[in-house]
Specification:
CATH architecture of the largest domain: 3-Layer(aba) Sandwich
Number of strands: 18
Strand content: 5-15%
CATH class of the largest domain: Alpha Beta
Structural class: alpha/beta
CATH topology of the largest domain: Rossmann fold
Radius of gyration: 30 Å
Number of domains: 4
Number of helices: 20
Distance between the termini: 50 Å
Shape: globular
Oligomer: single chain
Helix content: 40-55%
Length: 492
C-alpha cells in the first residue's frame, strides 16, 4: 500500500463475470487489480509480484484454493488472503481461518460487504507495519539514529514516540553537537508524516537577507538575482515536517512573518501577492537558553509560545554515562571500515579519559576525535599517545588527582541513582516546631533543585527520577522566577 492509499489486489476466480464484478468492487476502493481464472496462473503471478490483498476462491478448476492458501502463508506471509466460496460450511470457514485466511466471504456478496472486509484488512496491515517499524527502530541502545541506553536518552526516546503522530510544535534544546537534527528526523520518521518531505533549514547558516526567501520562496524579479520563481521550504514541506534549526538567529521582523504563518498556515512568497496554504508540522531547535532570549527581547514571546509546545531537552554527552562507550565503539567500527584500518578497541587509559572529559562539543566532538585518531595512526589499539591536544590536558588532571576508571557497576549506579529525601541515617526528616514548616511551593522547589544538582544539571534525568515530565520542571522554574520575590508566593 502506498502513501496515497492505493493498494494492489489479485483475484483468483474461475468465473469471468464474477471476476469482472469483484474487480469493479475493488477498483472503487482505489485498488490496482489483476484477475486470473486458474490457480496455476495465480502462482505464476505471485512469482512476479506480491499483492497487498489476495481474493481467493476455494474451488478452482485446476487446484484447491486451500492449497494456494497454504502456499501463500509459507512463501508470502505478508499477503492478506480473503477466501470466497459458494459452498460454505462452518467447518470449511474454520479451516480457512486456521490456515491463515484473514476473512471468509460467502457468494453472493455485494460491494459493501467486500469493501468492509478489505478496509479492515488494510487497517490491520498498516498497524502491523507500524508495530514492526517501531520494534525494529527501538532496541536496547539504538533508536532512530540515536545511540545510547542511559536514563536521560530513554526519556528522550519516550517523548519522541509520544509526540511523533501529533501536529503539536516541538522545540528541541541542547548544546551544540547533542543531535538536535537527529531528534527532529526521528520525530518525522516515527510519525504519520514519514512518507512526506522532511525539510531542514539552519537559520544561522543562511544570510539574513535571504532567509525569508529560503523559508517562503520568491517570485521572478523579487530582488536582484531572482531570475525565476522559486519554492521555499514551506512549500516543499507541505504535509511533511519543517525543521528550523538555530531559530534564535532569526531576526525579529522575520519572526513576525513566521508567527503569522504558524497561526494561519498561509504565507506569501517574497515579491508575490498570492496566498499559499500548506499543512506543515513545525520542529524548531536552539543551543541557547530560549527563555533568556525571550526576556532579553531577542525572541518574540508570542512566537515562543507557538513553537515551545512540546519541549525536548537533549542531554550533553558528559551526563550520559556509558553511552560514551557505546558511541566510541560505534564510531570506531564505522571509521575502521571507511579508512581501511583495523583498530580493535581503546586502551583502559583512553577509556578513562573519555569517561571524565567534559566533551564541550558533545557527540560531534567525540566523533571527530575518534576519526582523527584513526586517520592519523596505525595500530591495533587506540592508545593515549594518539589523543589530540584537548584531551591530553584531561590525562594530566587524571594523573594528578589519581582518578580511577569507572567500573561497570559504578556506571550503572551513575545512570540509575535515586534521589534521597531522607536524612543521613535514612530516616525521613521530621518537623520539630512551626518554624521548620516551609511553604509547599518552596519545599517542592528545593526538592527539584536538589534533584537537578544530583543529576549534574540534567533536567530530563531528574524529571525521570522524580517521575514527572521535564516540561513540568521548566514550567515551575519559570513560575519561581516570576513569583519568588513577591510578598506572597502562590502554591504551584
Amino acid at each position: 500500500m502506498n502513501a496515497k492509499g492505493v493498494f494492489s489486489a489479485l483475484i483468483i476466480e474461475d468465473s469471468m463475470s464474477l471476476g469482472a464484478l469483484y474487480t469493479e468492487y475493488l477498483r472503487a476502493e482505489k485498488a490496482s487489480v489483476t484477475h486470473v481464472n486458474y490457480g496455476s496462473d495465480a502462482l505464476n503471478e505471485l512469482k512476479q509480484w506480491q499483492p497487498d490483498i489476495l481474493v481467493l476462491d476455494i474451488q478452482l478448476p485446476d487446484m484447491s484454493g486451500m492449497d494456494i492458501l497454504a502456499y501463500v502463508r509459507e512463501y508470502y506471509p505478508d499477503i492478506t488472503v480473503i477466501m470466497i466460496t459458494a459452498h460454505a460450511t462452518v467447518d470449511l470457514a474454520v479451516d480457512a481461518m486456521k490456515a491463515g485466511a484473514f476473512d471468509f466471504l460467502i457468494k453472493p456478496f455485494d460491494a459493501k460487504r467486500l469493501s468492509f472486509i478489505v478496509r479492515n484488512a488494510l487497517k490491520q496491515r498498516q498497524l502491523a507495519n507500524l508495530v514492526s517499524k517501531y520494534e525494529n527502530s527501538l532496541s536496547k541502545d539504538h533508536y532512530m539514529g540515536f545511540i545510547g541506553d542511559s536514563i536521560a536518552m530513554q526519556a528522550v526516546y519516550r517523548i519522541i514516540g509520544n509526540v511523533a503522530n501529533s501536529k503539536a510544535s516541538v522545540f528541541i534544546m541542547g548544546e551544540s553537537g547533542t543531535g538536535k537534527e537527529v531528534c527532529a528526523e526521528a520525530i518525522h520518521q516515527v510519525g504519520n508524516r514519514q512518507s512526506e518531505a522532511f525539510v531542514a533549514l539552519n537559520c544561522a547558516s543562511i544570510p539574513k537577507d535571504l532567509i525569508e526567501s529560503e523559508i517562503f520562496g520568491h517570485t521572478k524579479g523579487a530582488f536582484t538575482g531572482a531570475v525565476s520563481n522559486r519554492e521555499g521550504a514551506a512549500t516543499r514541506s507541505h504535509k511533511g515536517t519543517l525543521f528550523l534549526d538555530e531559530i534564535c538567529e532569526m531576526d525579529l521582523a522575520l519572526q513576525s512573518k513566521l508567527l503569522r504563518f504558524i497561526q494561519t498556515g498561509s504565507f506569501q512568497r517574497v515579491g508575490g501577492v498570492k496566498e499559499e496554504v500548506v499543512d506543515v508540522r513545525f520542529v524548531s531547535a536552539t543551543n541557547r537558553i530560549i527563555w533568556e532570549e525571550v526576556k532579553a527581547g531577542r525572541f518574540r514571546e508570542d512566537l515562543f509560545y507557538r513553537l515551545h509546545v512540546i519541549p525536548i531537552d537533549l542531554p550533553p554527552l558528559r551526563d550520559r554515562g556509558r553511552d560514551i562507550d557505546l558511541l566510541s565503539n560505534k564510531f570506531l567500527q564505522e571509521y575502521n571500515k571507511e579508512e581501511d584500518k583495523s583498530f580493535t578497541g581503546f586502551s583502559p587509559e583512553v577509556e578513562n579519559i573519555f569517561e571524565h572529559y567534559s566533551w564541550p562539543g558533545n557527540v560531534r566532538q567525540l566523533q571527530n576525535v575518534i576519526r582523527q585518531m584513526i586517520v592519523l595512526n596505525k595500530s591495533d589499539l587506540i592508545d593515549v599517545d594518539m589523543l589530540p591536544a584537548e584531551l591530553m590536558q584531561m590525562r594530566q588532571e587524571i594523573a594528578g588527582n589519581n582518578i580511577k576508571p569507572l567500573n561497570q557497576d559504578s556506571k550503572k549506579n551513575h545512570n540509575d541513582s535515586n534521589i534521597s529525601l531522607f536524612s543521613s541515617d535514612n530516616v525521613p526528616r521530621k518537623l520539630q516546631d512551626e518554624k521548620d514548616i516551609m511553604p509547599l511551593w518552596l519545599s517542592e522547589k528545593q526538592t527539584i533543585e536538589e534533584a537537578i544538582a544530583v543529576c549534574g544539571g540534567n533536567v530530563p534525568k531528574a524529571a525521570t527520577l522524580l517521575e514527572i515530565s521535564a516540561s513540568t520542571i521548566y514550567r515551575k522554574k519559570q513560575a519561581w522566577e516570576e513569583f519568588e520575590n513577591k510578598p506572597c508566593n502562590p502554591s504551584l
